[in-house]
Write a structure and sequence with these properties.
The complex is a heterodimer. Chain A is of the alpha+beta class. Helix content of chain A is about 40%, strand content about 30%. Chain A contains three helices and seven strands, in the order ββββαβαβαβ. In chain A, helix 1 crosses helix 2 and helix 2 packs across helix 3. The longest helix of chain A has 18 residues. In chain B, strands 5-4-6 form a three-stranded antiparallel beta sheet. A two-stranded antiparallel ribbon of chain B has the order 3-7. The N terminus of chain B is likely disordered. Classes of the chains: A alpha+beta, B alpha+beta.
Chain lengths: ~100, ~140
C-alpha cells in the first residue's frame, strides 16, 4: 500500500463548485450535474491535490503538513480509500505512472 | 474558484515550517475509517428529466394520409396538405421547432403543419407524453 504506484489527479477546480456547509461539504460537479455531500477528509484531499498529478504518498505528505493525521500508516490507507472513492465519482482520475 | 475556500496548501504556508517545533498548530483532520463511505451523491431528477425529454420521440402518422396546414389528418390528395411517412422527431427537434426553427427535412410551412399536428395529439396517442413533457417548465 505504501509504495502504491498509482497516481491521482483531481478534477479541475473550474469544474467543481465547493461549498462548506457546517459538518459536511457540498461538491457540485458541473460536468455531471451531480452534487456530492462529502465529509472530512475528502474536501481536504481535493484541495491538497490542487492541479498536480500525485501519488498517494505525496498526497498524504501534503495533508500532513497542514493537518494532524494521527497514525501515519492508517492515514495513508484511509486516504487511498477516499481517493478510490473520488475516482469512482469522477472527482479524481487515476493516471498511469 | 474554490481555491480560496478550500485552503489549497501553499509551499510557503507557515504550518509547513512550524509542524516540527509546534505540532499542535495543525488541526486534527477527522479521517474516518477505511471502508466507511463518506459520500452521498444527489443526482438532480430535473436534470435527468430534461435529458430524457430531449431524447424522447414523437412519431408522425404512417404514409397514406396527409397533414393539412391546420395539423389535421386529411386524405393524401388534399390540396395544400403535406405527406408524412411515419418519420419520428426527437423532443429536441420539436422543442427547436416550437421556437421557430423548421423540423429537419421539412419546409417552413410543412414544419408548421407538423407542429400543429403534434400540438393536437391527445392523451394516449404516441408521442403525446413526449410533447407534454416539452411543455413543462424547467
Amino acid at each position: 500500500m505504501s509504495d502504491n504506484p498509482v497516481l491521482y489527479r483531481a478534477e479541475a477546480a473550474t469544474s467543481l463548485i465547493i461549498e462548506p456547509l457546517d459538518a459536511v461539504t457540498l461538491v457540485y460537479h458541473i460536468r455531471s450535474g451531480i452534487t456530492h455531500i462529502v465529509a472530512e477528509p475528502t474536501p481536504q484531499i481535493l484541495a491538497a491535490m490542487a492541479d498536480d498529478t500525485l501519488s498517494i504518498h505525496e498526497i498524504t505528505q501534503r495533508l500532513s503538513r497542514q493537518f494532524d493525521l494521527g497514525d501515519a500508516g492508517d492515514a495513508q490507507a484511509i486516504i487511498e480509500d477516499r481517493l478510490a472513492e473520488l475516482a469512482d465519482l469522477g472527482l479524481a482520475a487515476r493516471v498511469a505512472p | 474558484m474554490a481555491d480560496d475556500k478550500t485552503n489549497k496548501p501553499q509551499n510557503n504556508q507557515p504550518d509547513a515550517q512550524d509542524d516540527i517545533g509546534n505540532p499542535t498548530r495543525r488541526r486534527a483532520l477527522m479521517m474516518g475509517a477505511i471502508g466507511a463511505a463518506t459520500v452521498v451523491s444527489v443526482r438532480p431528477a430535473l436534470a435527468q428529466a430534461a435529458g430524457s425529454v430531449l431524447n424522447c420521440e414523437i412519431p408522425m402518422p404512417h404514409a397514406g394520409q396527409n397533414i393539412d396546414a391546420a395539423g389535421k389528418l386529411v386524405p393524401a390528395d388534399t390540396a395544400g396538405s403535406f405527406p408524412v411517412m411515419g418519420q419520428t422527431y426527437s423532443g429536441e427537434q420539436v422543442k427547436a421547432a416550437l421556437g421557430g426553427r423548421s423540423l429537419p427535412g421539412a419546409s417552413y410551412e410543412q414544419s408548421q403543419a407538423y407542429i400543429r399536428y403534434i400540438r393536437r395529439l391527445q392523451h394516449g396517442q404516441s408521442g403525446f407524453t413526449c410533447f407534454a413533457s416539452l411543455q413543462m417548465p424547467r
